[in-house]
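Supplementary Methods, section 5.1.

A reviewer requested that the exact input to the structure prediction be made available. We therefore reproduce it here, unchanged from the version used in the analyses.
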Amino acid sequence: MSQPYEELLEGDSVLRLAPGARHELVCGRLHGLVAASVANFAGTRLLPARSRVQLAHHTFICPDLALVTAATGKLWLAAEVVSSDDHHADTVIKKQLYEAAKLPRLWMLDPRYDNVEVYHAHSYGLILRGILTGPERLTEKLLPEFELGVADLFRAAG
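The structure derived from this sequence is encoded token-by-token as follows.
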């Protein structure tokens, strides 16, 4: 069962509600497939869901999925499963924090619309590279063994 958790966003403590069942289903599927795709990568480590990661001096976030470099522990890919009852923190606030930290890759998975927004770092900040839905496939060139059908990610339990 999920638990509430705390994040520190630019010095402000934010208590996040426990994620719901669909959120956890999507998060679990994503973790399983990413874990399999990084199993043979010595330079990359997948953290447990909602591990606390420091982005800046007074900013600790708990992404639903976090990939860090093994040598430095630096976050290079984060995924946030958007919660319908608390979407502002993920879609606005945390996205701005990721951008300020120059995060190389960000995935925003939205179970409300069954889509995935893919962002890449650019000199101008995070740039939306695409919004994937239905039959489209989520891939990442830095994870050559990773591929996930968006419809499979959001399908009902069963």
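Residues 26 and 32 are 10 Å apart (CA to CA). These observations are discussed further in the main text.
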